[in-house]
Each structure stands twice: as structure tokens, then as C-alpha cells.
């Protein structure tokens, strides 16, 4: 019995002992389980938190840092005196006048034969250059007070794959202005508005052709794009719907085209460093003022280039070192082809003569009113500006 009791006792002891042991094990298991739960909870919290951050990043993608930082931090090159002399010596006034300007001095309203002829002229000039421009026509039809009209912007890019672009632009269409009833041969050719700016752009890329070719080969982060806008002028009365047909269309389409191709974060419009718009150039003694504070440092480069060229004796009919570009004079807002870009946040340098030429929108805006030395001088200033900006 004892033994049995003992046994029983032993059994009980063992049972007790086992129970205690089980209890201890249970405790350890519970602690382990609890620890595991805490670990899982922490892991889940972290995962949720991280996924939340990823969602936030996805919903509000950060701007591509390179593109925007590069634009903001872009510094112009500093060409030496010898380089400046060499660069501006390439500007050829005769070529500008006869080869580039003369074929544009014709009626060239949107959709007309004159417009088509001017586009052909621009194509052939760009095609003759060695830099290798990618030229395309951005055509579309828009309703106008004269019914539906076909418009064609001409776009030329040096390196379409470059991350950023400097846009140099003018409008090539001429305004609808009735010819002189007493002299039907006298038609509106808009020499200063804007045949001369178009010819200057062609002369600029011709004078800089070897430098632009080298620039393209070096695969730079910023390239040059030329834009010849169609439909800058109103058909009748200037209004939001009757004006700026080509620039409104282009700014809108550039804001929809991903750049670099396939990008979900940036568009061709984001790729624009600066839009340099030329207009109403050709009359003697023009004045150009800065219109926008955010591009004042680039306007300063124009002032500096004019002074430098004057002091080097490289300008003609240029009485004092600061003749054309004047800072901090308010001439009021000017509506022009930059507006659709400005409204979308593109920095703008608007090079337009203010006050406007006296013959604006009259049949007298002809080649004989254009001061060839002024046009040549301004082209030289722009050669220096482009060479500095693109670090040619
Ligand atoms: Zn005009």
C-alpha cells in the first residue's frame, strides 16, 4: 500500500512536477507567442507605414531632381575675347539679308501658298546645315473668324534626346491686312513682324553651325530648339480665341508629351529651360526691356553681351555701350506667343521692341524700313548669348 501510496504519491508528485513543468513550459510558450505577436505587430506596422510612404510618393511624385536643379543652377559659359571675336565674325549681314530674309518677305497668312513657301525656305536652310537638325511640322486645324484654317508650326531640335531645351522662337505668319487699293501690288509683308526675327534665327544657326554640330556630338544636357510659330496674329480683333493659334497649340501638346520618352514624371514642356521669343525687330534704335523678374539674370547676359561687343568695337552704328537692352523700365505687359508657355510656368525672355515700331501693322512694314546694322548687331548679341548659354 505504501508503496502503492508512495507510488501513488510518487505518481502524484510526478504529476505535480509534470504539471509545474507544463505550466512553466506554457509560460515560456506564452511569452514566446507574445513576443512573436509583438514582432509581427511591429513588422506589420512598419510594412503599413512604409507602404503608406510609397503611396504618398506615388501620388505626389517628386520632380526629377536633375532636370529642375539643372535648370535652376545652369551657369553660362565665359567665352574669351578671342572666342567672342571668332563667334561674331561668323555673322554675315549679306547672307542674313539676301539668303535668309528676302524669301520671307511675302504674304504668308496661315494656310496660304505664301506660308507654304516660307516653310519650304526654312526647311531648305536648316537642311543645308551640317549640325543635323530634326525638323518637323506641327500641323492642326482651328476654327477662326474666317472659318476653319490649317496651321503649321515649324519645329527644329538639335538633339531631341537631350534632357533640357533652350527654345528660340518667333512667328512666321503675316497678319491679314488688305493691300493698297491704289497699288494692289503693295501687300503686307511684315518685315519686322516677324520676317526679320525668323531670318535672324536662320542666320544664328548658320553662323554657329560648326559649334552646334560639336555641341550635339558632345551629348550635352541642354540642347537648342527653334520654333517658328504659325498663327501668331489675329485674323480680326485680337482676343483670347483669335490670336496665338500656333503657340497655344504647341504649349498644350508639349505639356502632354512625356520627356524623356516614357517618363511618367516630366513632359517636353518641363524640359524647357527658357523660351526666348523674338518679335518686332528691324526698326532703327530699338529698345528692349526685361519683362520678367525670374529671367532677369538672362536679360543681364544680353546687356553684358551688348556692352562687351561695343567695347571690342564689334558693332556698327552703335553709339554707346548700352543702346538696346535696358533694365528695370516698365513698358507694361505685352501679349505675344510666349503667353501660353508663361501660363504653364515656362521662364520667358521676351525680346520685343518697345515702344512698338511706328509702322506696326501697316503696309509700310517693309524691308526698306529695316536698319540692317541694327539687325546685324542684335544677331551678334544673340550669338554671344547662345554661345554662353549652350557653352559652345
Ligand atoms: Zn503683328
Automatic annotation (TrEMBL):
Keyword terms: Acyltransferase, Disulfide bond, Metal-binding, Secreted, Transferase, Zinc
Catalyzed reactions per annotation: N-terminal L-glutaminyl-[peptide] = N-terminal 5-oxo-L-prolyl-[peptide] + NH4(+)
Entry GO MF terms: glutaminyl-peptide cyclotransferase activity; zinc ion binding
EC supergroup of this enzyme: transferase
Record field: transmembrane: none
Protein's UniProt keywords contain Cell wall biogenesis/degradation: no
A Pfam family the protein falls into: Peptidase_M28
Any single GO CC term annotated in Swiss-Prot or TrEMBL for this entry: extracellular region
Domain of life (superkingdom): Eukaryota
Main location: secreted
InterPro entries linked: M28_QC (IPR037457), Peptidase_M28 (IPR007484), QC/QCL (IPR040234)
Listed EC numbers: 2.3.2.5
Location within or outside the cell: Secreted
Residues of the Peptidase M28 domain: 153-383
CDD domains in the cross-refs: M28_QC_like (cd03880)
Keyword presence, Metal-binding: yes
Membership in a protein family: Belongs to the glutaminyl-peptide cyclotransferase family.
Protein name: Glutaminyl-peptide cyclotransferase
Provenance organism: Sinocyclocheilus grahami
Organism lineage: Eukaryota, Metazoa, Chordata, Craniata, Vertebrata
Amino acid at each position: 500500500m505504501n508503496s502503492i501510496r508512495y507510488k501513488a504519491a510518487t505518481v502524484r508528485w510526478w504529476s505535480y512536477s509534470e504539471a509545474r513543468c507544463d505550466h512553466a513550459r506554457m509560460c515560456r510558450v506564452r511569452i514566446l507567442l507574445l513576443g512573436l505577436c509583438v514582432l509581427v505587430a511591429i513588422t506589420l506596422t512598419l510594412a503599413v507605414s512604409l507602404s503608406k510612404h510609397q503611396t504618398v510618393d506615388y501620388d505626389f511624385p517628386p520632380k526629377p531632381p536633375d532636370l529642375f536643379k539643372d535648370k535652376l543652377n545652369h551657369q553660362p559659359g565665359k567665352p574669351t575675347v578671342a572666342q567672342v571675336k571668332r563667334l561674331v565674325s561668323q555673322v554675315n549681314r549679306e547672307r542674313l539679308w539676301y539668303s535668309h530674309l528676302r524669301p520671307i518677305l511675302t504674304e504668308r497668312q496661315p494656310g496660304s501658298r505664301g506660308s507654304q513657301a516660307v516653310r519650304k525656305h526654312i526647311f531648305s536652310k536648316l537642311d543645308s546645315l551640317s549640325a543635323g537638325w530634326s525638323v518637323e511640322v506641327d500641323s492642326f486645324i482651328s476654327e477662326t473668324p474666317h472659318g476653319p484654317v490649317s496651321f503649321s508650326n515649324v519645329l527644329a531640335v538639335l538633339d531631341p534626346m537631350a534632357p533640357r531645351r533652350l527654345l528660340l522662337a518667333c512667328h512666321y505668319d503675316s497678319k491679314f491686312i488688305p493691300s493698297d487699293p491704289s497699288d494692289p501690288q503693295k501687300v503686307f509683308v511684315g518685315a519686322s513682324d516677324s520676317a526679320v526675327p525668323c531670318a535672324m534665327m536662320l542666320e544664328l544657326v548658320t553662323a554657329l553651325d560648326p559649334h552646334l554640330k560639336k555641341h550635339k556630338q558632345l551629348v550635352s544636357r541642354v540642347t537648342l530648339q527653334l520654333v517658328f510659330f504659325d498663327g501668331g496674329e489675329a485674323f480680326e480683333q485680337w482676343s483670347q480665341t483669335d490670336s496665338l493659334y500656333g503657340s497655344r497649340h504647341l504649349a498644350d501638346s508639349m505639356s502632354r508629351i512625356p520627356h524623356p520618352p516614357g517618363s511618367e514624371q516630366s513632359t517636353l514642356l518641363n524640359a524647357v529651360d527658357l523660351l526666348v521669343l523674338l518679335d518686332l525687330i528691324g526698326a532703327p534704335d530699338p529698345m528692349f526691356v526685361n519683362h520678367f523678374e525670374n529671367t532677369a539674370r538672362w536679360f543681364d547676359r544680353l546687356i553684358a553681351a551688348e556692352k562687351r561687343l561695343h567695347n571690342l568695337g564689334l558693332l556698327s552704328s552703335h553709339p554707346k555701350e548700352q543702346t538696346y537692352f535696358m533694365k528695370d523700365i516698365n513698358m507694361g505687359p505685352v501679349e505675344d506667343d510666349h503667353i501660353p508657355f508663361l501660363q504653364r510656368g515656362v521662364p520667358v525672355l521676351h525680346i520685343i521692341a518697345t515702344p512698338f515700331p511706328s509702322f506696326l501693322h501697316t503696309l509700310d512694314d517693309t524691308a526698306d524700313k529695316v536698319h540692317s546694322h541694327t539687325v546685324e548687331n542684335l544677331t551678334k548679341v544673340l550669338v554671344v548669348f547662345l554661345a554662353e548659354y549652350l557653352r559652345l
